[in-house]
């Protein structure tokens, strides 16, 4: 059985995030710093990737000052604490094929030095020299000490409540190493 490693092509890969609150949502992007996927017998078997938390961008706020203020808050200890934790990682621990191109993926996600297991579905296409994958990961931010305006920890937030779950929509391209 042939084993191959595929390295993520950062310029062809994208993570879009969306966070929701009572009064709406915010969205943006965050970059992948590096990563690899492992393939054996033409099937995804594992991998890991590192996210550059310092690269977080907010796309839905056009006012420059408001955008900068919000970005600063996301960088603070209330959220990603990027000075202390400039990277987050996902290490794939198991992969179960559901169909020829659909997989159930399980892994360990580390944000702010805190690791929790996650599971998500991914669509994966593998050719001789390219692997493409898409998936949506839903993360409970409170598991990673991001409690700011969480209804689990604070009462009477009214319309300032921020929902605990946020989504990462991931689209990656990787090239055979």
Automatic annotation (TrEMBL):
Residues 5-175 form the Lipid/polyisoprenoid-binding YceI-like domain. SMART domains: YceI. PANTHER family: PROTEIN YCEI. This is YceI family protein. Pfam families: YceI (PF04264). It comes from Mucilaginibacter celer.
């Amino acid at each position: 059985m042939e084993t191959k490693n595929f390295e993520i092509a950062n310029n062809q890969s994208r993570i879009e995030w969306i966070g929701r609150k009572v009064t709406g949502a915010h969205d943006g992007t965050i970059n992948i710093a590096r990563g690899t996927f492992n393939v054996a017998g033409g099937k995804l078997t594992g991998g890991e990737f590192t996210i550059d938390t310092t690269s977080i961008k907010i796309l839905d706020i056009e006012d420059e000052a408001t955008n900068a203020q919000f970005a600063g808050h996301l960088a603070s200890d209330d959220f990603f604490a990027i000075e202390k934790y400039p990277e987050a990682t996902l290490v794939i621990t198991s992969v179960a094929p559901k169909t020829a191109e659909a997989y159930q993926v399980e892994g360990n996600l580390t944000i702010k030095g805190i690791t929790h297991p996650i599971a998500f579905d991914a669509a994966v296409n593998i050719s001789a020299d390219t692997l493409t994958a898409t998936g949506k990961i839903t993360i409970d931010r409170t598991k990673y000490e991001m409690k700011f305006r969480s209804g689990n920890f604070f009462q009477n937030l009214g319309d300032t409540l921020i929902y605990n779950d946020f989504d990462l929509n991931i689209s990656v391209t990787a090239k055979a190493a």
